[in-house]
Structures are given as C-alpha cells and as structure tokens.
C-alpha cells in the first residue's frame, strides 16, 4: 500500500459516522415512510438515485410510486445523530432506533 492509499484509509477510518431518522413523504397521497439509519447520507443518495432513475427501491412505496410518480415523493431528514467515539455500533444503532420510536410517536401520520 502506497502513502496515498494509506492516507485515504486513515481518512476513511477517521470520518464522522452520522445516522439519523428520516421520512419519505408522498406529497400527493399524504402517506409517509419513517426510517432510521446509521448512514443518513447513504440513504439520501439512494433516494436521490431512485428519483432520478424513476425506479422505486422500496417495495412499501411501490404502489404509490407507480400511481403518483417519483416526483411526488420527498426525503426529509428529521434528526441527525453523530456516533460518538466511545459508542459501539450496537449502541449507536440502539440510540437511532430509540430516536425513530420518538419520532413515530411525535408524527403519528398515515404510513406505508
């Protein structure tokens, strides 16, 4: 491994891990899909790709996606949560799941 590769690896290992809670909302049908993830940017990128290609990647959205079209959906980050250095991934995932439960109670909207 050369010096440039070592530096890239070091940067990757030191990156901030940001998870959170988000929802995908059908602006025409009014339904929402509430989700939690340990990689909020990755989830956003997958949604953006789905919208650009018109391909729905989540089976729960499929019917409404076909009916209303990809442009009827929006991706909203409700809360971001950064992993602390002292947390294990299991603790991080547990905290994010707890956040999702709190948001579910707060929103209480029709879901997919």
List the main descriptive attributes of the protein structure presented here.
single chain, 112 residues, alpha+beta, GIY-YIG endonuclease, three-stranded antiparallel beta sheet, 4 helices
Number of helices: 4
CATH class: Alpha Beta
Shape: flat
CATH superfamily: GIY-YIG endonuclease
By CATH, the topology is: GIY-YIG endonuclease
Strand arrangement, major sheet: 2-1-3
Work out the count of structural domains: 1
Identify low-pLDDT runs. none
What is the H/E order?
HEEHHEH
The total of beta strands comes to: 3
> What percent of residues adopt helix (DSSP H or I)?
40-55%
Mean pLDDT: 91
Over all CA atoms, what is the radius of gyration? Answer: 17 Å
Structural account:
The protein is 46% helix and 22% strand. A three-stranded antiparallel sheet has the order 2-1-3, with helices on both faces. The longest helix is centred in the C-terminal third of the chain and has 19 residues, at 89-107. The protein has a single domain (17-107), classed as 3-Layer(aba) Sandwich (GIY-YIG endonuclease). The mean pLDDT is 91. The relative contact order is 0.23. It has helices at residues 3-14, 40-53, 62-68, 89-107, and strands at residues 18-26, 32-37, 73-82. Strand 1 and strand 2 form a beta hairpin. By secondary structure, it is of the alpha+beta class.
């Amino acid at each position: 491994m050369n010096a440039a590769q070592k530096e890239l690896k070091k940067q990757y290992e030191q990156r901030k891990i940001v998870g959170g809670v988000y929802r995908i909302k059908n602006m025409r049908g009014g339904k929402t899909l509430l989700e939690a993830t340990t990689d909020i940017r990755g989830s956003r990128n997958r949604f953006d790709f789905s919208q650009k290609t018109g391909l729905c990647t989540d089976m729960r959205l499929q019917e409404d996606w076909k009916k209303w079209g990809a442009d009827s959906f929006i991706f909203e980050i409700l809360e971001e949560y950064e992993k602390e250095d002292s947390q294990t991934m299991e603790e991080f995932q547990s905290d994010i799941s707890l956040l999702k439960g709190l948001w579910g109670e707060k929103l209480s909207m029709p879901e997919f």
